[in-house]
Amino acid sequence: MLAGLGAFAALALVGMLAQKTSQPWILGSFGATCVLLFGFPASPFSQPRNIIGGHVLTSLVGLLFLHLLGPGYLPMAAAAACATMLMMLTRTVHPPAGSNPVIIFVAQPGWSFLLLPTLFGACALALIGWLYWTIVKRGSWPTPPQ
Membrane-crossing residues (predicted)? Predict the structure, then answer.
């Protein structure tokens, strides 16, 4: 129940930001981010570095491949593969972010997509997660590095 409550609160707040500002704060992969953030908060994939870093890195790669190579299934697959490797290399693996290059190739957004919804939305989710877990478990998130 705690995981569902956290996911509801986070997505409702980010959705409200989108509605109030008429800006696209929501990214399809954020639903899966909430599964990790609120269902498995101690997971390495659920930490702020991974949530924010993974989303920003994969969106950047997706945008670079889209704008340099153009649309198509081969550039999309290459972007997703490269994004996966870079997340692993930089230790910012966040599995939901692996879908960001695919989302980018489907939507074909401009460069502003990197800031909104990607960076600002991921930061908002991490902040909401921190507030939520501070209230619910009295400061149990993020998990200290091991």
Answer: 28-45, 57-90, 110-133
